[in-house]
Design a protein that fits this description.
It is built from seven helices and 19 strands. The chain is α+β, with helices and mostly antiparallel strands. Strands 1, 2, 3, 4, 7, 10, 11, 12, 13 and 14 form a ten-stranded mixed beta sheet that branches. A five-stranded mixed beta sheet has the order 15-17-18-19-16. Strands 5-6 form a two-stranded antiparallel ribbon. It starts with a strand and ends with a strand. The model has no long low-confidence stretch (mean pLDDT 90).
Length: 303
């Protein structure tokens, strides 16, 4: 079975836990996930199955959309509710107008403070390796791209918010940095991923009905086949002979109206994906406008 099944990850599970459970239930050996969620977080976790595991990096690079809650008053060692408090709870009276003004500064290209317990590598080692040994590496930062950030509501010391971002953005760092700017510290207490690239919460399934885990047939019935994945990448239909050339890693000259695209889904006449290719060159076509010839190199081939 090749494709993607979208899981609504429950709180308390790691992303690896979900992969292991689905692998065990479905008996599919090759199962991966397209984007880690922290144990306390819930929501969209796309699992790649079979040959679709080779597409994982494409899904990892997609934009994400989240809804969450920030608690103001103190920060924590992990920037979220699982960490130890850093200082007393200041219990601030939150000013909505001031919060909105701070939120506005976090849209676009911004630098985030990296969580001490993260997999981001510094000097060849992940930050959590230093943190577990009590080694203070200082406030490491990275640039991320936040597409939108909206304050939804304020209740006591907690703020509900929504945001969309490019891959590599830390929601708990966003909470931490906003709390720092407000002057009282803050940490993330709830996070739900609503969308990850082409996968939304509306298509996600739970692991169980609350009393028992669903059987193998349930998950297999919700697999999105490979022919329906990466629809935002233009498709070019190739002949059987060209498909054979792709399997052997050969470049092809193909006619397409999407000649400005950087990459293509190369599909057979039945619509099944044969390869993912990248454009090497464009040639003007004297006979078929606005279509033009492109030279395409296969990056991932599905024999």
């Amino acid at each position: 079975m090749d494709g993607v099944v979208v899981i609504d990850k429950p709180a308390g599970w790691t992303s690896h836990d979900v992969v292991a459970k689905v692998r065990n239930i479905t008996k599919i050996k090759k199962v991966g996930h397209a984007g880690t969620l922290d144990p306390f977080a819930t929501g969209v976790l796309p699992l790649t199955l079979g040959h679709a595991t080779r597409l994982t990096n494409y899904f990892l690079a997609s934009d994400k959309f989240y809804r969450g809650v920030i608690r103001f008053g103190f920060s924590t060692t992990t920037f979220d509710l699982d960490g130890e408090p850093l200082g007393e709870d200041l219990r601030p009276a939150l000013d909505t107008a001031r919060l909105r003004a701070i939120f506005a500064t976090y849209v676009g290209a911004v630098r985030q403070t990296l969580p001490p317990y993260s997999a981001k590598k510094v000097r060849g080692k992940p930050l959590y390796a230093y943190a577990r040994k009590g080694i203070d590496m200082g406030a490491a930062t990275k640039e991320v791209n936040i597409k939108s950030l909206e304050l939804i509501g304020v209740e006591g010391s907690e703020v509900e918010f929504e945001f969309s971002c490019a891959a590599g953005t830390y929601a708990r760092s966003l909470a931490h940095d906003i709390g720092r700017d407000y002057g009282c510290g803050a940490h993330l207490v709830r996070l739900r991923r609503i969308r990850s690239g082409e996968f939304s919460i509306e298509t996600a399934v739970t692991l169980s009905d609350g009393t028992r885990f669903y059987p193998r047939e349930f998950f297999l019935s919700h697999v999105i086949p490979m022919r329906n994945l990466l629809a935002e990448i233009p498709a070019i239909v190739v002949s059987a002979s060209d498909a054979e050339r792709l399997v052997h890693g050969m470049d092809l000259n193909l006619l397409t109206s999407a000649w400005e695209a950087d990459r293509y889904r190369l599909v057979d006449e039945a619509g099944e994906i044969v390869a993912l290719g990248e454009r090497l060159q464009t040639f003007a076509s004297p006979v078929a406008q606005p279509a033009q010839w492109v030279r395409v190199h296969p990056k991932i081939v599905f024999a």
